[in-house]
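If you are new to this repository, start here. Below is one unmodified record pulled from the training split, so you can see the exact layout before writing a loader.
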Amino acid sequence: AASSGFGQSNVSSDHVLIEYISPNTHKELHVGHLRNLALGLAAVNLRRTIGEKVTPVTYVGDIGAHVAKCLWALRKFHGGEAALPEKGAGRFLGHVYTDATQRVEENPDYKLEIAEVQKKLEARDPDWDRLWLDTRDRCLNELRQTFAEMGATFERWYLESEVEQPGKELVKKMLADGLAEIGEGGAIIINLEADNLGVFLLLKSDGNSLYSTKELALAGLKFREYPETKRSLHIVDVRQSQYFRQLFRTLEKLGFDKEMMHLDYEFVTLKEGAMSSRLGNIVTYEDFRDAMVKRVTVETKERHADWPEEKVKAIAWAIAEGAMKFGMLKQDPDKVIVFDMEAALSFDGFTGPYVQYAGARLNSILTKARAQRDWNEADLNNPRIVAVEPAEYAALLKAAELPEVVRRAALQYKPSILAQYLFDLAQAVSAFYRDVPVLNVEDRPLRNQRLGTAIACRNALSIGLRLLGIQAPEEM
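And here is the target side for that same chain:
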C-alpha cells in the first residue's frame, strides 16, 4: 500500500462530464448542498481511479424566476442596491427571497409584477441588468470561495444566463418543426405521454424561460465544448427524477445520441423536519461549518494546549471537514440523512474523525520509530515475515481489500461502500494498535514487519479518505 497508485485500475477509458453542486445565486448554500458537493467530489475521484477521464463542471442558476422574485423584493421592500452588504450577499439575498415568497402568498397579484421583472431581465433591460450583474457576481465570488475551501474545483462553470437565449431559440425551432406544440394556456410543450412521461413544459405562455428551456441548450453546448465526452452525469436530488426523465427523452427526440445520466440522492433533514428557503428555516452551510469548527477547536485545544494557534486551526478544520463529508457519504445516496452534529464529530463509532484518528495513531508509531537511531525506513523495502499475530493479519488483510472496494464504489457510484470499508479498516487498525506491540519489540525483523503493517494500513486509510475528499491528519 506504499504506492500512490494503490487502488487504481483500468476498467474504463471513457471521457465523462460530472456536473455537481449546481446551486442558485441569490440564495445561500445550505446543509443539503453539502451532500451534493460531497457526493460529486467523491464521484469525480472514484471514477478517475478506474481510468476514466473526468471533467468536473458546475451549472449555476444565475437567472430565472427565483432571481426575478428576489430582485423585485429587494427594490420594492428592502431598499434596493444601497441595502446590499459588503459581505454575505448570498445570506442577505436569501432572506429577501424568503420574504418575497411569503409576500406573494399573501398577495398573489404580485406574481404579475415579478413576471414583468423576469421579462425585463431576460430582455437585458439596462436598469435591471446592472442590478442583476452586481448581485450575481457577489454571489458567484462567495460560491467560488466555499467550493475552494471544500476542495471542489471545476474545469467549467456553466451559467443559466448563457444558455437562456439559445434555449428559447431551440424551443421555437422545435415548435416550427412540429416537435413541440402549444399547450393549454399558451405554453410551449412537448407531449411525452406515449413514453408515459406526461407533458414536458418547454417555455412559459408569457415567453419567459424555464429550467428545461435552458437545459436543452446546455446539453448541446457541453458536447460541443467537450466532443470527446461519452457520458454526462447530473448529480441532483431525487425530486428532479421525473424532470430528468422528460429532459433526456426530449433530447433523444431532438436526435441527441449522447449518454445522459441522473445520479439522484435523498434529502438531508433536520430533527425539526425538512428545510425550505420558502419557509426560511434553512440551516446555512456557513453556520453549520462554523458550529462544527468551533466545537472541534475547543476540544483540540484541550487535548493539545501546547500547539500553536495555526496548527490548532488547521487540524480543527481537517476534523470538521472530515466529519461533515463522511457524515454525508456513509449512507447510500437513496437514504435520507438526519445529520447529528455531535454524533458526526465523535472519535468513536462510524464517523470521519474515528477513521482519521486510526491513521493518526499509526502515524504516531512511525514518528516514534523514526526517532530511534537503530531503525531505517529503507529496512522495510523487503521486510522478512517472521510471525503474524491474528490482529495484525486481520488489519493487513483488510488493507489489501482497498483496490477491489474502490473499484466497486466507483462502478456503483456509491462512496458509501468505501466509507464502510474505511470504518472496518479503522476497527481492524484499532485492534492491531491495542493487541500487537510494535516499538517495544527487541527482534528487529519482527519489529520491521510490524512497522510495515502500520505503513500499509496507514496508507490504505489515507488513500481511501483522500478519494472521499477528506484529509488524513498526521496528528489529532
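Two things worth knowing about this chain: The chain has a mean pLDDT of 92. Residues 126-149 form the longest helix (24 residues).
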